[in-house]
Amino acid sequence: MVDPDWENFDPDEIMKSSKEYDWMNEPRFKRMFEEIEDKIQGVLGAGRYEWVDRRVFDAVFDRSTLLSLHKLMQSGEIETIDYPIARGKEAHVFHATTNHGPVAVKIFHTTNAVFKSLAKYIDGDPRFGGLKRRHRELVKIWVRKEYRNMRRMRKHGIRVPKPYALLNNVLIMDLVGNENEPAPRLRDVSVDDPMKVFEELLEIMAVCWQNCDLAHSDFSEYNILWHDNQPWIIDVGQAVVSAHPSSNEFLVRDVTRLVDWINKKGYNVNLADSMIRVLEDPVPEYPALPSGD
Ligand SMILES: Nc1ncnc2c1ncn2[C@@H]1O[C@H](COP(=O)(O)OP(=O)(O)O)[C@@H](O)[C@H]1O
Ligand SMILES: [Mg+2]
To answer: Stretch 38-66: mean pLDDT, rounded?
Structure first.
């Protein structure tokens, strides 16, 4: 499975040999990289997590991201980045250490594959000079949106990780799980009492809609972590307020997914009933969690 080239990945060599990293030879970037190099060993392929390889590095650590991390390390928000927890299409999530313990650092790609393949048709065409920058701006807005949604949900007592800081495409939040063991996704555990979990998740969705005025919009067993016998909601960047023209459609999709989830476990829950409960049933006001808006 491991490509021999990646197995022998030597970060220094890659940096020196790849044109893409030419900028690293400029004195100011060189200095910056030297300052953080040993703090990101966990993603450079040295140390405990040898499966971390060049692909991760290439996908995530472009110049602007390294600059952001450098800043976050200098201001003391992060001490070290240790190893990747998950890699996705839009973002990678890393285990990192701070002076107040472990955190999760979500780094959004500033250039995704789709964008890269389009870029060749756009770069060099004077009409579209600013597109790369606009893409980066869009990612920044997305990250701020996730941060704000998290605070808003916490204000209404919904268990989402506490966000600590954000800078450009980097979002720092509480690690859900234990020190060295990020919590599994609901998808990867078998819960004792699925019906109880269903009821709880449906209530969370109702609280989210009625009290926070938000539809999560990607509510699924992949975006719920299971920790200390409780669900934690994550990945809230795409959550929209009810005024969004598609909010109802997103909400219906979320409820449908949850109903499908429980019915796949052999239950027979009615979608319309569940929908009405989310929309209309009185919901409790959960006590706020720290660091809500
Ligand atoms: N705060 C966190 N604590 C522990 N693990 C996390 C945390 N945030 C994300 N993860 C892990 O990273 C994965 C991807 O994060 P997510 O926010 O869902 O990003 P994506 O947009 O790539 O799906 C999750 O499925 C989960 O396993
Ligand atoms: Mg996700």
So the answer is: 69
